[in-house]
Structures are given as C-alpha cells and as structure tokens.
Design brief:
By secondary structure, the protein is an alpha+beta fold. The protein is built from 13 helices and ten strands. The chain has three domains: 110 residues, Winged helix-like DNA-binding domain superfamily/Winged helix DNA-binding domain (Arc Repressor Mutant, subunit A, Orthogonal Bundle); 152 residues, Serine Threonine Protein Phosphatase 5, Tetratricopeptide repeat (Alpha Horseshoe); 56 residues, no CATH class.
Length: 363
Amino acid sequence: MHRLSCIMGMCHSSLCEPVVDGGQSDSTAAALGVRKAMRQLAISLLGPFEVMVDGEQVTQFRSDTSRALLAYLATHCGVALRRDALAALLWPEQTDAEARRNLRVTLSRLRDALGDREMARPFLDVTRQMIGLVEDERCTVDTRVVREALEATRECPHERLEACETCAPRLRVVADLYRGDLLAGFALDSVSFEEWMVVERENLHWQALEALHALTAYHEGQGTHEEALRWARRQVELEPWREVAHRQWMRALAMSGHRGAALAQYDACRKVLAEELGVEPEPETVALQEQIRIGALAPPVKALPDRSELEMRVEVAASTGPTSAHSETLCVAHPPVEPPPTRRAFSSDVPGSERRTITVVQA
C-alpha cells in the first residue's frame, strides 16, 4: 500500500452494493442504481512526485506542466485559484492569451490523467474563472498532513516538545511522510514556478529537520537509543553538515554500548564539516567526543543487589539446591571500606538433605 495511505489509515475498499431482488426487472434495478466506490486520491510531494488513485500509480500526465499544476493545486488544497494567476505562474514569459490557452490544454490533460471527467464527484473543482483541488475525505496530500501535524505540536500545551508523549506520534507522522525535499528532482522551465518551489522546499525542509531533532531528543529521553539513532541518522542524510544531529548520533551510539562507533562518527562529522563548510567541530561536539573517549558517557551499569536481597537469594538457593554436601562461596564486589572484610556464615538444615554451609564474603 502507498506510504501516505498507510500512515493516514486510508481504506481503499469498495462500498457494498445494494442487494437487488432477483424478481425485479432490469429497469427497476437500474432505477435503484448501484453505489460506486468512493475513489481515493493520494498525492505525495515530499520526495519524488507521486500520485495514486485507488492505490494505482498515475503516470499518464503527458507533460511536466500537468504535474506542476497538480502540485501547486495540492499545496493549496481546498482553495480556488484564479486561472489567470495559474497561467502566469506556469508560463510567465508568454502573453496572457497564450498562457490561458496553454492552461486549458494542461488542465484537460490533468483531468484525463486523474479520470476526473467520469466521476460524479470530481477531484478538481473547475469553473470558467477558478480551479481548485477539493478538500474532503477522498483527497490526501502529504504536505497538508505534515503541516497539520506540526500545527498540532505548536498548539499542544506541553512544557517541552522533546518530552511530550502526546506530540511524539505527531512528530513520527512528519518523519515518516518526509521522504525528501519537496518535488525532489523536479524542474520546470518557469522562473515563477521555480522561485515558488524553492521557497516552499526550504521551508518544509527546515520544519522537517526540527521535527526530526525533537523526535530524536524524545527517544533519547525515553532511553530508546535505537530509535534515537534511526532519526539522528535520518537528519544527517537530509543535511550531512547538521552538527547537532551528529551529536545526537554519537550519544545514541555511546549509550547503546558502541563506543568505537561513536568515536568514528565524530571523525565523520569533522571530515564533512571540513569538506563542506571549511570549519572545525563546535566546542560542544569536541567535549562530547572527549566524554565518550574517556568512558564518561556509556550505558548505565546494572546495580548489584544489596546485602539483604543477596541473603534472601542465598537462603532460597540453599533450600532448593542439590543434596550433596559441599560449601559455596559467593564474592560480591563493592568499593573497599573500613573495617576489613568480615565473614558471615549461613547454615541450611533442609529435611532429607545433608547440612550445607554457605559463606558470603562481604567486602
């Protein structure tokens, strides 16, 4: 199933047709009608341009201007746009008459590609003056979903986004849908359209990186270091010189017990900063590397049981152990304290077994 449909939980199954009595005539059945499935449109603009209708990829656009027109309408989903403004956006160097004529041809090709003409409820709302993409349950656009998720995180009354359990799933939606930059690899011979695309692309890119950083920090706080590593790596994939993401990556590796890999990640960070920006790592990154090198940042060591818990375990073991006579010595390592170590002996008299002596050396 298409990624966007999976994330949003969209269902492309057909609606049930009404049952027609077998004794009814064909004309009666036709009068009753047969409900057709509500068609679904999913548009992915983050990463390579991709359109799905009822789970099937649409490829018959015939021109890049058709793709560009749909992309622009999708980012303004639910808004009717003037034809003359769209014509000027896509053909800025042509006369108004030529641009409007080209728009009519492009719109016709777009409707053919979507199968819009045969629908009782078309995806495109078209009038003599306006064109728009309808905003209802049939249409899903990844950029709109991402913006709604980010807006929800801004409206949430949390103290810190990085610690908010309510917003973590919203950040995950953004992370999953952001396959890459807006219309990655797409270009159109229109200065106006290219300028619009660059601004939108940069804005969404920055918002996605901020969401990924917050999601990574959330998993760091939760101690789920594998997830933190995953989303830190994703940030670096999108922006290799993003130093804060390299630090998150290093911490996730160190806290997962991969000290050598964390130090190697520092070297990779230093190399890419030198090659791409001609700078050295920030003092914070250098300090983090030093912490990892001396072992100051590492997975927590599981605490040893205290004496009372140890004695209880020894008594249980003595009462359930083998019956052969023997002596066991349990050594528990603790920091040296004064006075010198003392010995405490525990006896086990289990009916039907021989006497067993267990000595605990407490340092």
